[in-house]
Request: fold
Amino acid sequence: MTPHMLTRSLDRGATIFLAIVVACGILIPLSNLLLPAGSFLQVPTYLVALWGKYVCYAILALSIDLIWGYCGILSLGHGAFFALGGYAMGMYLMRQIGTRGVYGNPILPDFMVFLNYSKLPWYWYGFDMFWFAALMVLVVPGLLAFCFGWLAFRSRVTGVYLSIITQAMTYALLLAFFRNDFGFGGNNGLTDFKDILGFNVQAEGTRAALFALSCLALIASFLICRSVVSSKLGKVLIAIRDAESRSRFLGYRVESYKLFVFTLSACMAGVAGALYVPQVGIINPSEFAPGNSIEAVIWVAVGGRGTLVGAALGAVVVNYAKTFFTSGMLAPYWLFMLGAMFILVTLLLPKGIVGTFNAWWDQSKEKRAAAATTASAAAEDGITEPKMAE
Amino acid sequence: MPAHLSARLCTFVLSLFLIAFALPAFAGPFEDAVAKFANDDYSETEEAIGVVASSGNKLAFPIISALQDGRLMADPESKKVYVTGADGKSIDAATGEPVASVPDSASAVRLNNRLRRSVDAAVGSLTLQSPDLGVRLQAAQSVFKSHEETALEAVDGALAKETNRSVKAALVDARAAILLFKSDATEVEKLEAVATLKARGDQEALALLTGMGDQPASVTKAAASAIGSIQSSLAVWSMVQNAWYGLSLGSVLLLAAIGLAITFGVMGVINMAHGEMVMIGAYTTFVVQEVIRTSYPGLFDYSLLIAVPLAFLVAGAIGVLIERSIIRFLYGRPLETLLATWGLSLVLQQAVRTMFGPTNREVGNPSWMSGAFELGQITITYNRLWILVFTLAVFAILLAMLRYTALGLEMRAVTQNRRMAASMGIATSRVDALTFGLGSGIAGIAGVALSQIDNVSPNLGQSYIIDSFMVVVFGGVGNLWGTLVGAFTLGIANKFLEPVAGAVLGKIAILVLIILFIQKRPRGLFALKGRAVEA
Reply:
């Protein structure tokens, strides 16, 4: 990844997006820490945590857009990779509690003492070291995605079938993590964290730093996705999305391309989960719920499938709306809103916010350029003609 | 004269009193025997127990069981005996008349160990010969479980008089159990007992045979072979039991998936709101039952029969509405359909939550669906049996409809080649709407049946949606027989895994197996072949 390649791949939208993320990543923590509490410009700590959550969701949305928007793989189980990354981070945070837990056991987390574990299960070894946990945040989701994708893509499970088995995967994990004897805290999950790298998780400084880190991770994910989709590899991915059989007949190893991008996407989702957990303060099996994964897909659809900026924007917009509606009098109507959003976006706005905007922008530019000519391609981006299945 | 008169009057009044007081004493052997309890003499008490127990009087059982519990009070002065109930009320033991209170001079009739045994035997024989069939059966079964030697005589006595077949069988088993444990029983008797228990062949017989202790060699040998045969027959029965549970689960899965097999399998529409159609069917049942409860209570047993067509119409109409307003714009874009119908499912859930509240609603079982019967060593509940029958009926009707009706023919034509069908003059968009309505309507019917075994809540549908998709994908899209085989295979596999791995792990194993299976056969068990696949 050369700097040249980076700059080449940046168009105006991407530049604006990066500028905004960088500005937020710097200004919000600074305003939270430096300005006096209660001042007009000061961002309260709870808002920092809330927006930190949104940024993590934006990374998850990016990872989904990378496979769905550019490779046509609709994963309804991406929440599983997110949650696995979160659990890896949660395990590290649990080990950091040490003797400060309710039972004061230096090795075993509270729930294990409660469930009469005599020693730490082998898969908890190493999670007292941050570097190991950080590695696992990438390796566990990546490995699962690799195995799953290797099986699925090699045997050419595509389209709806793939969506359904990814859903089955996250559902199976949901059931497994709910079990107490699985060793991950059962339905209570992992919580009551104290320290991360020696800093108090609750402290304002730590929260601000986590927010800045999340923005950094978002920028990194964005640049990675950007460089993938604008490279030759990305062109092949788009070809696979649009005509899988044709790409295969042209000699491309479709399954290898898909496997690569699916694994990469899972790792990104894992990172998003790992950043999410210390900011939210809990990870439990409900993160594996199939509904969560589907909801993440709708963020991408709202923002604009196949536009990386749109995916991130969609995650923030939908989640902001969720926070706004579920905290007021309108709470009982939130599900109506969310459901209607799913329906209306797919029916009326198939390109999403950013996609529609881009199309409008391109068209108006064309119009201005061709103002002299009589022909005018009537702008109509709303409803696409229903395409009947053959 | 007056003196004479007054003397005669006196005698008359006195004799009246005497008669009044002495009447019980002359009334019969039962009353005589009861009075003997008041003498506080062990041998007389024993005599009284024998007479009372064999009297056939309806007070015999209350008296003897009161004696057993120390609730039989006797007044040595008036020679009257009282039975104090557990609730504190008392009756006169000889007449059964309620009495206000037991005199202070009365005390509990005392027993020694020898008497206590004869009391126990008397209680056993009394219940064994009770006029109530249920009491007799229960008594025989409890003797079988306790297998006390003292009860042998009572069992033999009851066996001689018993006419009911099932009670007689229970008594024979009880006798065998006693003889097996009786130290002075002959070897022949014991061998017979082993044979009887072997024929009984259940878990309890197995427990008796394994725990019978020291026995003559021939008996031990016979018992060992009996244990072996019982164990193998029990293993077979547990297989049968698992298979039944599996069939039952499979029928539920099939019922939930059958509508999806139409919308997803035949039309290729990923309907994530399918579970909500099931839920709407269940709520239709709830509403029907509410109306019946408030207005026509006599019709309650028919509530499900009324609900089935209504649920089909309600869910079907909603299905047609959905197809016309949303799905027809999304044909050929399966992933978008998935998202839109997921959104729809959220809206429908929330709508039901707003209308009926978030809590579970009670849907009752009609009388013909409650209860159970025994088949060999397994218990079959009527509601599960009816659901299995109902599911197969729905499946058969659907299959016949697709095969023999004009609409079915049109549906198959449109599925196989839409453009060709349109060229032949089939109104494809009308067929689409009707097919989707049919699938939704069948989901609604499924809701009626599932309301009998599941909680009717706004989340009812969600618990079935993943399973339904698994069934359809596993069985093979576009093939109703595949759905049938898929549902029963998954149901039975699940129930056979459950005892080995536990309910949750079994379910996880099934999910993993399906994921692996899809790799091997990406289009399910019964895959469509040829050009239709690529459509």
In short: Chain A touches chain B through 51 residues (CB under 8 Å). The two ends of chain A are 43 Å apart (CA to CA). The longest helix of chain A spans residues 45-71. The longest strand of chain A covers residues 190-191.
